[in-house]
Amino acid sequence: MDKINHVQVNTPSYAQDGKFHVRLTQGYFQNLRRMTSWPLIVLFFLVVWLEWEGTPLLLFSFEQRQILFFGIQLSWHDLPLLAGVMIAGASLLFFAAVAWGRVWCGFACPQSIWTWIFIRIEDWIEGSAQQRSRREKRVLTPKDIFRRVAKHLLWIGVASLTAITFTGYFIPIRDLVSLEVFQSSTTLGWLVIMATLTYLNAGLVREKICLHACPYSRFQAVMFDQHTRTVTYDVERGEPRGKRRQAEALKQPIGDCVDCGICVQVCPTGIDIREGLQAACIDCAACVDACDTVMQTLDRPKGLIRFASEAQLQKQPSPMIRLRLLGYGCVMLIAMGAVLFGFAAKESLRVDIARDRGPLFMQLDEHTFCNLYNVKVERFHPDLRNVSIRLTEPNVFELFGPTKLDLTDQNAQWVAYRVCSNQISSPRSEVGFLVEGHGMSRQLNTSFFTRSLDFQNN
């Protein structure tokens, strides 16, 4: 849409040596952002340690080929359920984007959250944005070097803790934090890579991810319409910008914007919201809080920069409920309903049967024929430990192989079985395998051959 401009990639005018320092601000939306992001941070670092009946609450185990999802055991065959969860989440993201723009990016995106954490550390160790900017212009003193080293060490510490926690969702965290991790070069290498990426993204790259790497900024224009409420500068009220005393002395008209530039200094992506909505804007509302503080100081109405739609700025009706928003809402509800149904209907006991790759059948005598099968049983319920295997027609077929299986070992193996019968005369019939355990049962039928179909036709 016309409202969205090209991404601003030039360094802000207040930056020194090609970099800029984000100025921290306070206000309603910054408090709301912290109320949203801090619970997510706590959940990220906490859930990995929680267990349910001796098993991790959330674990994507490649070794055991299963997913532990808040007390529910899923197999890799249930990955479509996770795909459904992602579709439902994407629909919720699109729903929010149509209504309020990129609020996910500004309030809940991990890239933004970790960037703000690193900025907080930087502000705590090296001082405010103005102090850091002045320091860039002079030769660093030993004290400055000490502060910078301390900052990077804290960044590395946070990045390492993040990498360990993230990896703990794939390897049990208690095994991960033991000294055994240093015996695995693969795991250690993965931790180093994850920590390095976190350090670079949140500490050094920062806004470049939002400017150049984030795909969401590229297709947001498809979802936005004239009724989407985004962080917007009220041009009619703010222009022409300038100092009021100078304008009054020159008898020139003046808007509410005093051109202080604070809205640019607090922006984590370094854009000037007064130039119009841009793809790099993540709707974090830092400029809203900063501008409201200035307006309040100057005894002027707040809201020069605010969440508003294009229609609202043009003094037109701007309904919140509209067809596009309802469409995304319906898709979100349908996806969530499908996911809930999938979880309710998922299998706790899975059985796979495959014929042996050898001969189609074996003939022991004139009337006795045998077929070879491989059976694999997988459990996805914590109380299911042992199962029994038998045939549905024991009077017709005879089963040779283990009738009891211990499923304690999560790495399910194929078990060889032989089924024989001297009562079948047709070339092909069905034989049923019945697997039972802990009140659960699963029956699978497969083919039983006695002679070649071509031979029978001849």
TrEMBL record:
Any GO MF annotation of the entry: metal ion binding
Query: PANTHER family under this entry?
Result: FERREDOXIN-TYPE PROTEIN NAPH
Judging by the UniProt lineage, the source's domain of life is Bacteria
Q: Name one GO cellular component term.
A: plasma membrane
Which terms are listed as keywords in the entry?
4Fe-4S, Electron transport, Iron, Iron-sulfur, Membrane, Metal-binding, Transmembrane, Transmembrane helix, Transport
UniProt key word Electron transport: yes
The residues covered by the 4Fe-4S ferredoxin-type domain are 247-276
Q: What is the species listed in this Swiss-Prot or TrEMBL entry? A: Nitrincola tibetensis
Q: Where are the transmembrane segments?
A: 38-59, 79-100, 153-171, 183-202, 325-345
- A Pfam family (short name) is FixG_C
Protein name in the entry: Cytochrome c oxidase accessory protein CcoG
SUPFAM superfamilies the UniProt entry points to: 4Fe-4S ferredoxins
Protein's gene: ccoG
